[in-house]
Amino acid sequence: xxxxxxxxxxxxxxxxxxxxxxxxxxxxxxxxxxxxxxxxxxxxxxxxxxxxxxxxxxxxxxxxxxxxxxxxxxxxxxxxxxxxxxxxxxxxxxxxxx
Length: 98
Prior knowledge:
The longest helix has 5 residues, at 2-6. The strands form 2 sheets. Strands 3-6-5-4 form a 4-stranded antiparallel β-sheet, with no helix packed on it. It has a 3-stranded antiparallel β-sheet with strand order 1-2-7. The protein is built from 1 helix and 7 strands. The protein has one domain. The mean pLDDT is 85. By secondary structure, it is mainly beta. The two termini are 28 Å apart.
């Protein structure tokens, strides 16, 4: 219980898979979160027009890597289609099919 009190931050993300299936991902015991999202990178080709008027979510998940940070934490690095990188350092993860 003490470790949860030291790292109370929880991040939840709802994902829509290309198959139409929906998932909920929970990163538990987060002690680092970084995201370099810039909606200006999410534009139509050869245009400054923001794709889908910015109403489609932050972007498509292209690749990710899950590694051990140390003996207590994991690190999840996620790359989106717009070259946005998300880094989450955490103690536990849950993936639930909705």
